[in-house]
Amino acid sequence: MNTPLLQAEILRKTYGPLVAVEGISLELHPGDIFGFIGPNGAGKTTTIKMLATLLQPTSGTATIDGIDLIRYPREVRPLIGYMPDAFGVYDDVKVWEYLDFFAAAYRQSRDERTATVDRVLELTDLTEKRDAFVQGLSRGMQQRLCLAKCLVHDPKVLLLDEPASGLDPRARIVIKELITRLGQMGKTIIVSSHILPELSDFCNRIGIMERSHLLISGDVETIIRQLQPTRQLLITPLKGVGASGPLREDLEAMPQVEKATVENGDDGTVRVAFTGGLSEQAALLRTLIERGHALCSFTESAMDLEDVFLRVTTGRVN
Ligand SMILES: Nc1ncnc2c1ncn2[C@@H]1O[C@H](COP(=O)(O)OP(=O)(O)O)[C@@H](O)[C@H]1O
Ligand SMILES: [Mg+2]
């Protein structure tokens, strides 16, 4: 976990007076799935293209597997699979031919190519479509094929620019599952989206970008903790016991409880703003039980990424 597989330091890109990407720094390790979220025009594509060695940064540095990608783009390219935000037009090309073509571009022999095509078709669940024409595939399948193309040379890093855009909910789930599987295989993945819910459930790290700035980035838990310093505990007593009586009073008197409020009436839940950590949380539960409170549930109300996004962004869109 020590040396990052992908590292960017103050990567910046300007077009004349326009700053497309302002000093982005990032560290990712094998298996990390980094959700890169931001509205259109935020600078996601520009960042991804710089990391894919397709765009020269104005300043800053980046390495992949320790190799400087600005100085040695040729050495870095075999380590990267880049999925652009648009799928090209391929008339009269069959699925296997499309993949075989890209495998050939990586100088694989005929036998290697056959094995490669089988492997990536299997991985992206497109084996049945081997002889179909590319243009005849559904959009979801085309996106999977595009991802399959990124995998022909078995790269360590995947840079996926809006892979789920324009897909119906079902196709989106399929692509998410596929990306999750690739993360489990140890690939380091950056996946961008302008729609937060697309990323919130399968990324372990996120970065929120707006107007060329990376406003916040890090592991999901830490970000949530930063934005919400007190834990919100939801404690529900047995029906008929009453949430507003001794239970609430006991809670209010405890040292790490900032506030205890009753929600949904006396048969409802006590919401506790709690400043302690997890072990104090466990101690709190033990104390409540020892004092004879009949509890049905004791949970932490987690702030989800949706809330994080709303707090971090100001709603400005280019
Ligand atoms: N080749 C270019 N020339 C000038 N401006 C560009 C170019 N490419 C992107 N931009 C600008 O850079 C900003 C970031 O764009 P982009 O990286 O495509 O954002 P995103 O992918 O988040 O939608 C936008 O303001 C866009 O208009
Ligand atoms: Mg984009």
Describe this protein with a few key phrases:
single chain, alpha/beta, Rossmann fold, Alpha-Beta Plaits, 2 domains, 4-stranded antiparallel β-sheet, 11 helices, binds magnesium ion
How is this structure best summarized?
With 318 residues, the chain is α/β, with parallel strands linked by helices. Helices cover 33% and strands 27% of the residues. It folds into two domains: 6-92 and 138-225, 3-Layer(aba) Sandwich (Rossmann fold); 229-302, 2-Layer Sandwich (Alpha-Beta Plaits).
Q: How large is the share of residues in beta strands?
A: 25-35%
The H-and-E topology, N to C, reads as EEEHEEHEHHHEHEHEEHEHEEHEH
| Biggest sheet descriptor | 6 strands, mixed
Nearest-angstrom radius of gyration? 24 Å
How are the SSEs placed, and which strands pair?
Elements: E1 6-15, E2 18-28, E3 33-37, H1 44-51, E4 59-64, E5 67-68, H2 73-76, E6 80-83, H3 95-105, H4 110-123, H5 139-150, E7 157-160, H6 169-184, E8 188-193, H7 197-200, E9 205-210, E10 213-219, H8 220-227, E11 231-237, H9 246-252, E12 257-263, E13 269-274, H10 278-290, E14 295-300, H11 305-312
Parallel strand pairs: 3-8, 3-9, 6-7, 7-8
Antiparallel strand pairs: 1-2, 1-4, 4-5, 9-10, 11-13, 11-14, 12-13
Helix pairs in contact: 3-4, 5-6
The structure holds adenosine-5'-diphosphate and magnesium ion.
What do you see in this structure?
- The protein has helices at 44-51, 73-76, 95-105, 110-123, 139-150, 169-184, 197-200, 220-227, 246-252, 278-290, 305-312, and strands spanning 6-15, 18-28, 33-37, 59-64, 67-68, 80-83, 157-160, 188-193, 205-210, 213-219, 231-237, 257-263, 269-274, 295-300.
- With 318 residues, the chain is an alpha/beta fold.
- It folds into two domains: 6-92 and 138-225, 3-Layer(aba) Sandwich (Rossmann fold); 229-302, Alpha-Beta Plaits, CATH 3.30.70.
- Strands 6-7-8-3-9-10 form a six-stranded mixed β-sheet, with helices on both faces. A four-stranded antiparallel β-sheet has the order 2-1-4-5.
- It is elongated.
- The mean pLDDT is 90.
- The structure holds adenosine-5'-diphosphate and magnesium ion (MG).
- Residues 15, 18, 20, 38, 40-46, 318 line the site of adenosine-5'-diphosphate.
